[in-house]
Predict the structure of Beta-ketoacyl-ACP synthase.
Amino acid sequence: MKDIALTDHLGRPRVVVTGMGMVTALGLNLAESWAGLTAGRSGVRDITRFDTTGMRTRFGACVDLPGDRPGRPLPAGERVATLGAMAFDEALAQAGLTAPIAGPFCFGMPPIEIEWPARTAIREAATGADGMAMTLSAAELPGQVAGGELFSPAVVLARRYGTRGIPQAVTTACASGGTAIQLATEALRRGEASVALAGGAEASMTPETLIRFALLHALSNRNDDPAAASRPFSLSRDGFVMGDGAGALVLETMEHALARGATVLGEILGVGERADTFHRTRSSPDAVPVAGVMQDAIADSGLPPEVFGYINAHGTSTPENDKTEAMAIHMVFGEVAPPTSSTKSMIGHTLSAAGAIEAVICLMALRDQLLPPTINQDDTDPALNLDVIPHQARAVTGVKAALSNSFGFGGQNVCVALGVGL
C-alpha cells in the first residue's frame, strides 16, 4: 500500500471525514435522505404541526418528530437539540466512536427564543407589567422557558458527547453549518485536537418565523403546489422554502484516523470565508465577495479549479441570490462551469443546517459518483448559463472534488472544498 500523506500542501494536518449523519424532510437518516435526493423527490408539503390559517406561506420541508402533537409541536430549542442528536448519533456510529470525544464541538444553529405561547403564559401569570414581575412569573413556570435559552441546544449536545471545551455555537445565518465545519477544521489544522464534531441543525419553521420571512417577501407562496415551490435557477423562482433538518460530520486528522483503523470517507480540502457587509439581507450584486470566497476555498485546497467537478449551490430559489451566485461561479470558472445543482429544490432551505447537510451531500455524490439533481426545472433561466443537472441525478466518473456554497443574510459567505480519493 502506498504511503498516505499526513499533511497537506502547506504542512498542516490533513482533515478527513470518518462519520456522517443527516436528517431532512426526505428521511430521518443519511440513507433515506440520500435515496430521496438521488431519486429527485420533493420533501416539501403543507405544514400540519401548527395552524397556518391566514399566513402568506403555508408549506415547508417539514421534519415532524415523535414528540410533536397536533397544534403543540416541540419548542424550537428542543427540536434543534433532537435533530442534532439524531444526526450526530448517526455520524459517530459510522465513525466507530463513542463519548467522550476529546475535541471541540462546533455547531451551526439558530438563536433560540422563547416562543409566543410561552411568552403569553408568562405575561398572564405575572402580577405586574414590569421586568421583575415577568422574571418571577417565568421562575414559577420552568416548563415554559425550558429550552428557550439562546444557545441551549449546543450545550445539551456537547454534554451528550462529552466534547472538550466550551461548545462553539455559531449563528452566521444561512452559512452557519459551513462556519462550524471551518471552525473544526481550523482547530485540527492548528493541532489543538485530533478529532472534532461539526454540524448544524435547524428548526425555525414556526409561525413567528414564517411571518417574519413573509414580511421580507423572501418566501415562495405557491400554496397550491408546494412540491414545485422551490425552483432554484428557474425563470419563475419566487422565494425560498423553509426546511427542517440537521447534518453532522466527524472530523479527524488523517494521522489519528489511520492510527485507529478508521475508514476515511472524504476530506475537507479547504475552506473560504468572507463577509461583504453590503446590506442586512442582500448580497453584493457585483458577486465579487461570493466569487472571492469560492476562490479562497480552492486556493486553500492547493488544487487547480478544474479538479472541482461539482458544485452544490446555495441556490435558494430567490431571484437575486441565484443570479448573483451564477455570476460568481462564472467569475471563478469561466463560461463553462462545473455541473451545479441546488438540493434545496428537494429539501428546502435548512438555514443554519444547510452548510453541514450540503457538505455531506457533496461527499455522498463523490463517493457514489452520482450528482443529485435540481428539480422543478421546466423553465430553467437560460441567462444564468449553468448546467443545473435538471430533473434527474447524473452518473459521472472521475469526479473527486466538489464545492459547497453557503451564503447568509448580511453577506456571511462560506465555501467548503471537499474531496474523495485524492
